[in-house]
Amino acid sequence: MGSRIAIIGTGYVGLTTGACFAHLGHDVVCADLDPGRIERLSQGHLPIYEPGLQDIVEAGIASGRLRFVVGAAEAAKDCEFAYLCVQTPQGDDGSADLTYLQAAAADIAKVLPAHAVVVNKSTVPVGSTKVVERVLGRHDVSVVSNPEFLREGSAVSDFLKPDRVVIGSDDPSAATRVASLYSDTSAHLLVTDPASAETIKYAANAFLATKISFVNAVAAVCEAVGADVNDVVLGIGYDKRIGHEFLRPGPGWGGSCFPKDTRAMVKIAENAGYDFNLLKGVVVVNDEQRERMVTKVRNAVGGNLAGAVVAAWGLTFKANTDDLRESPAIAIIDVLQSLGAIVKAYDPQVSQHPSINVGSDPYEVCDGADTLLVLTEWDEFRWLDLDEVKRRLRQPNIVDTRNLLDRSAALRSGFSYQGVGR
Ligand code: UDX
């Protein structure tokens, strides 16, 4: 028999968590403040593109195990578990803003049944479990940290087949009850204290961002010494201690997590008395990477961006998502346009943008352009006809910030090709 779970917040984490828990057999009620959003979700209309999510939401609705209501209290009033999946945006000083989390806790404090367990799924600073306990003011309710490690574009499989489930609680029985929700997933289970669980989340994202900034810095060295970063990554990655994962050079990391979580981790350390210089360097390298991509485009069009026409493939922060939040592609295009370049962009998941001219065909955006600029690693870009692209471009230049295209084929077709680190 499944458990009764309330999900507070139907954003990317809340919706995925709720639908997957229903898929695992639990009885799930998802709540949001926005009636329109709840109405559309109840009809199976999702506000986000996430592979596989549409199917399990529809199955959950059809089975009656997944429902949507307006207001946190409505969902939490007869739950056994209340998952807080609200946004924790970056505050002005870089620390996480807990306004929404505290508001959600206050909303459910009055209606939570005795012995319910409140679960922090949102990415929250170390010590937030105590913040939620204080707001709830309920001694018959436990608060547990259960951070998520979902990647956009693979969130459903990341939830159903997690590398690990982390539970942070000072109450062993509450931890055991939360762990039982995941009993149908074959995952390593780590039960620890709340501070450690919250630190695991930030340390994981900080380390992943560090890997990417490291390979982007190595790519810069490769360009300077004439090495090929693809072979360098292959060569170091055979060492099991290093591995090949997450060592793809690119325009820098973006998205709704890494930029926010790296700055929050620096702030958490600083507030606790440690100057996290290493992570500050990771952020600096990432900011510089975007400038390096702009320089590649400037070189491709002959040194002056004013009036240059650029065909951009990709706007999302990475492939297999429709998310534009903190997208390096958007940041790079903004700089190019501010320097006078005329950009026409294509992205399979984006039809319009307030400040960028978005086309509906990857070949059309190449018409009359002085260079093609690949910004997001959509698989479909690999198979487009480079001879057709060359016919449409005004000059046969490619800047490939993802090392996505076949460089040899491009050179054979007469393009000048700039990748990253090669
Ligand atoms: C990340 C973490 O992976 C996930 O565990 C956490 O829960 C949320 O944050 P996400 O932001 O969805 O997930 O995307 P991810 O696949 O990690 O990529 C983050 C950024 O790094 C993207 O801009 C991506 O293009 C970039 N990236 C990733 C690289 O540039 N090179 C790589 O090798 C991998």
Account of the protein in words:
By secondary structure, the protein is of the alpha/beta class. The protein folds into 2 domains: 4-192, NAD(P)-binding Rossmann-like Domain (Rossmann fold, 3-Layer(aba) Sandwich), CATH 3.40.50; 207-418, NAD(P)-binding Rossmann-like Domain (Rossmann fold), CATH 3.40.50.720. Helix content is 42%, strand content 14%. It is built from 15 helices and 14 strands. It has a 6-stranded parallel beta sheet, sandwiched between helices. β12 (371-374), α14 (386-392) and β13 form a beta-alpha-beta unit. α9 (194-225) crosses α11, α9 (194-225) packs parallel to α12 and α11 (258-272) packs antiparallel against α12 (277-300). The longest helix has 32 residues, at 194-225. The termini are far apart. The mean pLDDT is 96. Uridine-5'-diphosphate-xylopyranose (UDX) binds next to α9.
Low-confidence stretches: none
Mean pLDDT: 96
Q: Any idea of the CATH class of the largest domain? A: Alpha Beta
The total strand number stands at 14
Q: Which class do the helix and strand fractions yield?
A: alpha/beta
| Helix/strand order, N-terminal first | EHEHHEHEHEHEHEHEHHHHEHEEEHEHE
Number of domains: 2
What is the 3D shape? globular
Rg computed from alpha carbons, rounded to a whole number of angstroms: 23 Å
Give helix % range. 40-55%
Q: What amount of the residues lies in strands?
A: 5-15%
Number of helices: 15
